[in-house]
Write a structure and sequence with these properties.
The structure holds two protein chains of two kinds. Chain A is mainly alpha-helical. Chain A has two domains: 35 residues; 242 residues, MetI-like (MetI-like fold, Orthogonal Bundle). Chain A has 14 helices and two strands; from the N terminus they run ααββαααααααααααα. Chain A has a two-stranded antiparallel ribbon with strand order 1-2. Chain A is flat, with a radius of gyration of 26 Å. Chain B contains 19 helices and eleven strands. In chain B, helix 10 crosses helix 19 and helix 18 runs antiparallel to helix 19. Chain B is of the alpha/beta class. Chain B is globular. The longest helix of chain B is centred in the first third of the chain and has 19 residues. Chain B has two domains: 174 residues, 3-Layer(aba) Sandwich (D-Maltodextrin-Binding Protein, domain 2); 204 residues, D-Maltodextrin-Binding Protein, domain 2 (3-Layer(aba) Sandwich). About 4% of the residues of chain B have low confidence. In chain B, a hairpin with a 2-residue loop joins strand 4 and strand 5. The chains are: A mainly alpha, B alpha/beta. At the A-B interface, helix 2, helix 6, helix 12 and helix 13 of A face helix 1, helix 3, helix 4, helix 11 and helix 18 of B.
């Protein structure tokens, strides 16, 4: 017994064994806590107060949330954001996938086309807004209207139209973002084993069947990522709307983030803006969970 | 082999330790927002500012292509000769989102010693103790300085009877008009439009010649208030508790502006809410296409710029619009200097402030910067061309009252969306005015001063 006890090596304390791992993850965790979690906690607390950023906060309880429930502008901004998300995510994803598939056929021109389609992604959003703002000028001298006039279509109001403003801004957003999603699709396509596609071809599957039955199901992880990220980006839309329309005409392009910005920094209603931010977080979370469930269910159906 | 598995308990333990230490650091005692910083230097001698020394940091915003070279280096070098113990550093900031930046800096008590501020910031900054009163410093360092400013302006810069900032530049909303186009329109180029009726005549006659009398931008509050004052209206009641955007005069203003667009008296591009696109498009009509006869602005640097861009064209200045009772009132552009409560060297900042605002230096600043000196003594030394001098004379019509002091900049958030809808024919001008008033009243109720 004494021999057995004497021959057992003492293991170092657990915390010492894992210390190196703690040290590696600590910076990330600390940064997340400072710049991620603490601001979130602060926003939650501020959402129950009235605070103009300079004075001291005044506790209001649920008043800000009650006020939101009666605020037409808030509900309009939610509607605008929801419509924008649908108009943005599906076309962006579809166009990007189409571009990715065409590029895969481009042979030695692949790098060239990838670069060209990616240029809008790395272009300053302010420059994009200024150029498209000029293209969308509402009178006869606007370039788009000039081109339409050449084929007999009367000038359009574009960003000044209640019906056209949101689709116009969405068009710009899709144009500027599609290169990013295209790169993600390319990466996903490259992960599909060629043998599966060859096997399907040997079995008599045509192009569409190969795409629908082989390619698309295998792109499920990429699809889920693009749809979720695209939706989150859509819910956070701000810059283009701020620069192109300022939220008009008549709040028809006021996204929820533009609403939050206006109340936080122009009207100095930090509490009210924080309450709206909380609602946005909840909506984004619900949308993400729904998408995960839907895309997962769709994929299972294809395999069944 | 070393096991890399951690149990859930261990992970939670790590996160808890890291989070607790971060929260403990974050909860270190700091001054409450708006309270003067605990270690801020206060008036340290019986004669405020008398023993000032050390470095002073000031935030300024660009008025020219190269403010440090043309304005601040000459001023700071001259100042150094008069006050060798004080070193002034002027840090240029961007105009974009400057109010938000200033608010954030004040809230974080990370402000410079002094900065260029605007008159509509007086109440919110003073109420939160973010800026200090200047009375004691002025009494000690330059007792005659305040007397050089118009009383109406000084009263508008006070909070609870104390003077919180002093103007370094000013401007009235006037029009720069193209006399050649006026002749083409059939108007006497020596007589500029002085009332709303004159404006209507100008617009109609210009339209008949396929020109525009002037441009209008719906996101520009100064343009709106110019017409509102020209029609005898106000933004707020005298006690600043009620919005007057649904008053008869205001509804008339909404109608007038909607009419301008309905009859195509002004370029359509100005109906959009986005500021850059609208400004660029409408300025283009005045400068490049020369289809707009008058460009209204309070920004003298734009006037200088237009004078350079439209060469060989005779330009004149329109006066501030007259209301029916003959009164002339302009929304002021008043750039001011104020000293932050959390600044590290308030004494030095006060010496620099009072020095810069002396007539000779004020004249230099405005000559180079392209604005109007706010004092008559400085205007006597102001070295500019006759057109600009004429524009400068209009600052005597500047009034600072409840319209400008309270909620001024908040008004545009409620006016602009509905005004844009009205000019685009998406709602009536009356409904637009009523909605703007209701939203402004809701805002005042939610944010009492």
């Amino acid at each position: 017994m004494a021999t057995m006890q004497g021959s057992v090596r003492r293991k170092p304390a657990r915390w010492r064994r894992y210390l190196i791992w703690y040290l590696f993850i600590a910076p990330n965790i600390i940064l997340f806590l400072i710049f991620g979690l603490l601001p979130i906690i602060a926003t939650v607390l501020i959402s129950f107060t009235r605070w103009n950023i300079l004075g001291s906060p005044t506790w209001l309880g649920l008043d800000n949330f009650q006020r939101l429930s009666h605020d037409n502008e808030f509900w309009t901004s939610l509607r605008v954001t929801g419509v924008y998300a649908i108009l943005f995510v599906l076309p962006s994803a579809a166009v990007a996938l189409g571009q990715a598939m065409l590029i895969s056929l481009a042979g030695r021109w692949q790098a060239f086309f990838r670069t060209v389609y990616f240029i809008p992604v790395v272009t300053s959003i302010t420059v994009i807004a200024m150029i498209w703002g000029w293209l969308f000028l509402p009178d006869d001298t606007g370039p788009l209207n000039y081109l339409l006039g050449a084929i007999g279509i009367p000038p359009q109001s574009w960003l000044q139209s209640l019906n056209q403003a949101l689709p116009s801004v969405t068009l710009v957003a899709v144009w500027s973002a599609v290169g990013y999603y295209m790169v993600l699709w390319i990466s996903g396509l490259q992960g599909i084993p060629q043998e599966l596609l060859d096997a399907a071809m040997v079995d008599g599957a045509n192009v569409w069947t190969r795409f629908w039955r082989v390619t698309l199901p295998l792109l499920r992880p990429t699809t889920m990522f693009i749809v979720v990220i695209g939706t989150i980006n859509a819910f956070q839309a701000f810059t283009l709307f701020y620069l192109l329309t300022g939220g008009g005409p008549l709040y028809n392009t006021t996204t929820i983030v533009l609403f939050i910005y206006k109340h936080a920094f122009r009207l100095q209603e930090m509490g009210y803006a924080s309450a709206a931010s909380m609602v946005l977080v909840v909506i984004t979370l619900i949308a993400t969970l729904i998408q995960r469930s839907a895309i997962g269910g769709w994929s299972d159906e294809l395999y069944s | 082999m070393l096991s890399t598995r951690m149990s859930r308990r261990q992970v939670l333990k790590v996160l808890g330790i890291a989070g607790t230490s971060v929260l403990a650091a974050a909860c270190a005692p700091v001054a409450a927002p708006g309270a003067p910083a605990a270690n801020a230097s206060s008036q340290s001698s019986s004669t405020p500012g008398a023993a000032a020394s050390g470095s002073v940091v000031m935030w300024a915003f660009p008025l020219t292509q190269n403010d440090p070279e043309t304005i601040w280096n000459p001023l700071t070098e001259k100042f150094k000769k008069d006050h060798p113990d004080i070193q002034v550093e002027v840090q240029m900031q961007s105009w974009d989102a400057r109010r938000e930046k200033m608010l954030a800096a004040a809230a974080a008590q990370a402000t410079p010693d002094l900065a260029y501020l605007n008159n509509d910031m007086v109440f919110s900054f003073a109420q939160a103790n973010a800026i200090i009163a200047l009375d004691d410093y002025l009494q000690s360092l330059s007792p005659d300085l305040v007397g050089e400013y118009p009383t109406g302006v000084i009263n508008g810069l006070k909070y609870q009877g104390k003077l919180m900032m002093l103007p370094i530049l000013s401007g009235a909303v006037c029009g720069l008009y193209n006399k050649d186009l006026y002749k083409q329109i059939g108007l006497d180029p020596t007589k500029n439009p002085q009332t709303i009726d004159d404006i209507k005549t100008l617009a109609a006659q210009a339209k008949a010649q396929n020109l525009y009398g002037f441009a209008y931008r719906v996101n520009n509050l100064e343009s709106f208030t110019s017409y509102l004052y020209g029609l005898g209206g106000h933004l707020l009641s005298p006690d600043h508790q009620t919005s007057l955007l649904d008053s008869e005069e205001s509804v008339a203003t909404f109608n007038f502006i909607a009419d301008l667009f309905a009859k195509e008296y002004v370029p359509k591009a100005g109906a959009t809410a986005a500021s850059d696109a609208a400004a660029a498009a409408t300025a283009d009509y005045f400068v490049q296409k020369q289809q707009v006869a008058t460009e209204y602005t309070s920004n003298m640097s734009l006037i200088k710029q237009y004078q350079q861009q439209i060469q060989g064209v005779d330009l004149g200045i329109t006066e501030v619009l007259k209301a029916a009772d003959g009164t002339q009132r302009s929304t002021p552009t008043l750039g001011c200097l104020g000293i932050f409560a959390s600044g590290k060297n308030k004494d030095g900042a006060a010496v620099w402030l009072t020095w810069v605002l002396q007539p000779e230096n004020l004249a230099f600043y405005n000559t180079e910067g392209g604005f109007v000196p706010p004092t008559a003594k400085a205007r006597d030394k102001w070295n500019v061309d006759p057109v600009t001098k004429e524009w400068g004379s209009q600052v005597e019509h500047i009034v600072v009252d409840q319209d400008i002091q309270y909620y001024y900049n908040n008004n545009i958030n409620f006016i602009q969306p509905v005004l844009s809808a009205a000019v685009l024919g998406q709602m009536s001008a009356e409904d637009a005015a009523k909605q703007a008033a209701q939203q402004m009243n809701d805002y005042i109720k939610q944010n009492p001063l």
